[in-house]
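ok so i was messing around last nite and threw this chain in just to see what happens. nothing serious, just curious
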Amino acid sequence: MSLLSRLAVRLISVVCVFSLAACATAPEFRHAPTGVNPSPRYALQLIDQQPNVLWGGIILDIRHFERYTELEMLAFPLDSGLRPIPRARDAGRFVALRAGHLDPLEFSVGRFLTIAGRVTGDRELDVRGERERVAEMDAMEIQVWPEDWNLQPPPRVRVGIGISGGIH
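result:
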């Protein structure tokens, strides 16, 4: 193998390694739906089936009770990394119920979450002065996103081959 061929193989290997390292893996959810993932608005029509869902959004309100915590969420579509897309049109509100007490330092109004669980019912909420029927889910798995996750630019990989020089 010639010197040029060996250099090309090494360059391609290095580029592949860095490309794979730059890929962010999406979290795994054991309770995510295996088929269709209905939106919170559409899930209201499927309450009798109690479908598994994977929803993401922003926390609007938190209510702590003796044995569980309620999270009122505004849902957004998810990107390929299963993160909410806050620039997209919202997908409706929902209430996530989680057994136990959630850490207020980690779970606060304005934080973004992705939640896997099962639709268990519905309830009415006061939304901008009007009653709105929303889906209620049992939150089996929760991914809390860092506070600045949506401010970070997406990773980019650039590959270039060129010649540079200068005159001294």
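not much to say yet. The two ends are 36 Å apart (CA to CA).
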